[in-house]
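Researcher: Going back to the complex we discussed earlier. I've cleaned up the inputs and rechecked each line, so this should be the final set. Can you rerun the prediction on the complete assembly and write out the structure?
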Amino acid sequence: MHIPDFMFPVAQGLVYWVIALIFIVLALRWARHSMGEEKVPLVAVLAAGIFAIQALNIPIPWGTSGHMVGAALAAIVLGSPFAGVFVLTLVLLVQGVIFGDGGIIAMGANIINMGVIGGFVGYYGYVAIMGVTKNSYAAAFIAGWASLFLSAILCAVELAIAGTFPLVLGLTFMGGYHAVIGLIEGGITAVALYLIASARPDILEHPRAVST
Amino acid sequence: MIDDLYFIEKHAYKTSIIHRLDARVKLLVTLAAIVAIIAMPYSTKVYELGAVLFALVVVLWACSRLSPAVYIRRLALIMPFGIFLIGFQMFVKNPYYDVFHPIAALPFGIEVYAESVQFASILLVKFIVSISFIILLSSTTRMQDLLEASGRLGLPREFLLPLGMMVRYIFVFADMFGKIRSAMDTRCFDPLDRTLPYRYRLRQLGYTVGMIFIRSYEQGERTYTSMLCRGYGENACLHTGRKPLRAGEVSFFAGSLALIVLSTVLIYLHP
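Model: Rerun complete. Updated structure for the full complex:
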C-alpha cells in the first residue's frame, strides 16, 4: 500500500502532505501533553519496533506473503489514535527516504492512509466495538481489519482522483485484496493484544478493558 | 527490507567524492530531481527529462565508486509493487488521453491500448528516475548525516529527536529480527510452510508481533531511564552544530540544481 511518487501529480501530493502535516502536528502535541514530552523517546523506540514488525512475512491464504501495518495495534495499546499517526510517520519517513519504499511526494498520502486512517479507525473502531461487545479481542480483530480495509479504499480513491488507477477496478482489486489480508492484520492485532495484556498489562493504556 | 539495512549502511560508510559531499546538498538535489520528474506532465516529454536526470544519476553513481550491482540489487527490491501498478496501466484507459487505439485483444474482453502502453512507459520512467535518486542518496549518505542535514535544513526539533532515536534503534531491532528468524529456523518453523495449520502459523506470528512490541516498549523504557540519568529533560534537543558548506559543495549544488531546473524548463517549453 506504499504509493510510489509517480502515481500522483505534484499538486495532489502536496495537498495530501498539508493534510498529513496537520495530523503530524496534532500527534506531536499528543505526545507532548498526554505522554509527557520526556516520554517521546519511548514512542520513537516503539516506532523502530513497528518497523521490525512490518518486516515479518505474514502468509496470505493464496500462497503469497504480506506484512502488517501495525498502526491499529499501536493506537489500541497506547490508547490514542495519534500514537498510530506518530509511529507510522516515523516509519514511513525512514522507509521512503532510505529504502525507497513509498514516495517522497506521495508520503503525505501514505501517512494519511496508513497512519491517520490506521490509527483513527483502529482506535475508535476498537472503542466502539468494545462498548457493544465487551470483548476486547473481537474488538481488536474487527478494528485491525477495518483499519487496513478502509486504508485500501481511501488509497483506491486517491489513485482514481490522480487518474492513475480506475476507481471501480481500484476498489475491486485493492478493496478485495485488503479485505482478506485485513483479516490477518485483525487476527494478529488480537493475538498480540492478548500477549501484551498477559505479559505486560501495565503497558496498555486501558488494561482493565482487556481480559486475559 | 530490514535485511538490507546493514547492506545500505555499509555502502554509505565507504568513501568517495559523492560520499564526502555534505548531506544537505545531496538531500536537496535528490528532492529537486524527484520534484522535477514528477512535476513534468504525463506526456512523452518525460522521456527526455528522464534521460537527462538518469544520465546525472549514472555520472554521480560512477563518481561514488559503488558497483552497479549495488544499484541493481536495490532497484530489484523496490521494483515489484511499482511494476505491478505500471503493468496494470496497459489494460485500462486513463483520463490523460482522449482516444484509445487497441493494439491487442486478450481473453475475457481485455484489450491493450497503444496510449495505455505509452502511459505505462511514462510512469516507468518517472519511477526509475525518482527511485534512482533515492538509491543514490541512501547508498552514499549515512543515516546519521541525513538526520543532521535535516536538522540543519530546518526540520523542527520536536521531530528531529524522535526520528534520531528511531534511526538509532532500527539497527537494534534489525539484529533482534535476525535472532527471531534464527530462533524460528532452529525450531523448523516457517510462517509460509503450508503443511502447518494456518491458524497455528498466525497465532505464532501474533505472539512474535506482541513480543517485538513489548521488547521495543521495554527498550524505550530503558533508553528513557538512561537518558534521564544523562540529564535529558523537557527541553532537550538533538544538537546539530553549524557546518558551513565548502566552495566545491556550493558549486556542485548550484550546478546540479541549474541542470535540473534548466533541463526541466527547456524540455517543458519546447514544442
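Model: Worth noting: The helical segments of chain A are 10-33, 40-54, 71-78, 81-99, 107-133, 136-162, 167-199.
Researcher: Good, that matches what I expected from the previous run.
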